[in-house]
Amino acid sequence: MFEGKLKILNREIPRTLLGTSPFIAAAQFGHRARLYQIDLYNNPENIFKIIKKSYDLGITGIQVIPYPPVIKALKDALNAGYDMDIIGTVRPDKELEDIQLMSDLNATSMILHADITDKKDWNFIGEKLQLIKDGNAVPGLATHMPYSTTKHLVGSPVKEMFEVYMVPVNKLGYLMDSELYGSDERTHLNQLIKSLDKTVIVKKVLAAGILQPQEAFDYLKTVEFADIVTIGIASEEEAQETFSLLGSH
Prior knowledge:
42% helix; 10 strands; two-stranded antiparallel ribbon; alpha/beta; 18% strand
C-alpha cells in the first residue's frame, strides 16, 4: 500500500511521505502541541532522529513545512547521507522566501499552503505556481476545504497550472469542511477530486492522532483518489509502528 514512486512531469514522488506537522507543534494536536513544542520544535536533533528512523524504514520522501527547526534537521539529515525527496509547503506571506529555500534544497515539488489556495485569488495563485514550475519543481496546491475549494478549482483559470493536490481525508471527516461525512459526502468528494485529474496527496489521515494507524489505513483502502499519503510522526517509536504497519498492507 503506497509503495514505490509516482512520476509527475520530470520528477518522481514517493507514495509515502514523512509529514512534519508534529515537528512544528501544529495547533491541531491540542494539548499535545505543547509537548511537541518542547520535544521537537525546540530540539531539532529529535526531528533528525525521526527523519533517520523513517528513512531506515524505507520512507525516502518528506513533506516539509519550512520552519527553521525542520529545515535544520532536514539539512543535517541530507548532510548525513539521507537523500530525501522533498515536497515543500510554501507558506502564506513567505511565498518568495519559501520558493527560494525549496529551490536551493532541490525540492521535487512545492505546494502552496491551504491558506493561500482557499482564498481563491487565482491571479496570485497562478503567479506563484508559475514561479514553482520555472524552478523545475512540480507545482501543487493544498486545501483545508476539499469540498468548497475543489468545486471552485474545477472551473478556475489555474486548473491546468498545477499537478499535485493535497487534501485532508480521514474516516471521521475531521479537519475537513463537512460536518456530516456519510457515504453521500464521500461519493461527492470522490467525484469532485477525480474531475480535477491531479495526483492527490492525502493528509490528516490519522485525524491528528484520534484514529489508530490500523483503522486509518483500513479506511484509506476505500479512498479511490488517494495516490500518495503523508503522515506526521512524533517519535522514533511512532515511526516504527506506523510505517511498519503501512508497509504490511
